[in-house]
C-alpha cells in the first residue's frame, strides 16, 4: 500500500507565520462573543465562567442556586448553611433588571393586501362575518371566525389606521354641487 506524500516529506519550520498571533486568533474564535455590552466589559478572562457570573450576581447553575427542597415527614425545619456569595459588580444586575422591565414594542405588521381586504370587508358588511365569508373577494375561502380574527389582528397591529378608517366611514361626506 502506498504511503501518503505528507509522511515522506521532511517537516520544515515556517518562519513567516507568527505562532503567538495564531494562538490568540484560535483562542478568540473558540470563545463565544458576549452580546450584552455590560457583561462583556465586566468579564474577566482570567476567571472561570462560574466565578465571573457569581461576581455579577448571576447564576451559573440554577439547580444549585434554587435547589428543590425535599419534603420532611416530621416538622424538622433545617436552616440553609450555604455561604452567601459577595456580589462585586451589582451594576450589571441592575442594568439587566432595568432592560427586562422595559415593555417590548410589538413589531408585527400586516401586508398591504390583507389590510385592503379587511377594509373592503368592513366597508361592505360592517360586523356581518357570515356575509363576509360569502363575498367574492374572499379568495382563500376564510370562515367567519377566520375573518373576525384577521380584523381583530388589524385592530391590534394598526390601531391608529383602524381608528382613522372607522372615523372616515362614519363621517358624512359633503355633497359637491
From TrEMBL:
Domain of life, per the record?
A: Eukaryota
Q: Name one GO cellular component term.
A: nucleolus
What are its GO biological-process terms? ribosomal large subunit biogenesis
Q: Which residues cross the membrane?
A: none
Q: Where in the cell is it found?
A: Nucleus, Nucleolus
- Location (main, coarse): nucleus
Keywords of this entry: Nucleus
Which family, according to the similarity comment? Answer: Belongs to the NOP16 family.
The protein's matches in PANTHER family, at most eight in alphabetical order, are given as:
HSPC111 PROTEIN-RELATED, NUCLEOLAR PROTEIN 16
Task: Tell me the protein's name.
Answer: Nucleolar protein 16
User: Which organism does this record belong to?
Assistant: Crenichthys baileyi (White River springfish)
Amino acid at each position: 500500500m502506498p504511503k501518503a506524500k505528507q509522511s515522506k516529506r521532511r517537516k520544515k519550520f515556517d518562519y513567516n507565520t507568527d505562532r503567538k498571533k495564531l494562538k490568540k486568533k484560535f483562542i478568540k474564535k473558540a470563545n463565544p462573543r458576549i452580546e450584552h455590552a455590560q457583561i462583556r466589559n465586566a468579564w474577566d478572562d482570567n476567571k472561570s465562567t462560574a466565578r465571573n457570573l457569581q461576581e455579577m450576581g448571576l447564576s451559573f447553575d440554577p439547580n444549585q442556586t434554587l435547589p428543590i427542597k425535599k419534603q420532611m415527614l416530621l416538622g424538622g425545619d433545617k436552616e440553609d448553611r450555604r455561604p452567601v456569595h459577595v456580589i462585586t459588580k451589582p451594576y450589571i444586575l441592575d442594568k439587566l433588571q432595568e432592560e427586562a422591565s422595559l415593555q417590548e414594542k410589538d413589531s408585527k405588521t400586516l401586508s398591504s393586501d390583507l389590510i385592503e381586504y379587511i377594509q373592503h370587508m368592513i366597508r361592505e358588511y360592517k360586523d356581518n362575518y357570515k356575509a363576509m365569508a360569502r363575498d367574492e373577494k374572499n379568495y382563500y375561502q376564510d370562515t367567519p371566525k377566520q375573518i373576525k380574527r384577521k380584523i381583530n389582528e388589524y385592530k391590534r397591529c394598526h390601531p391608529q389606521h383602524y381608528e382613522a378608517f372607522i372615523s372616515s366611514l362614519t363621517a358624512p361626506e359633503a355633497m359637491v354641487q
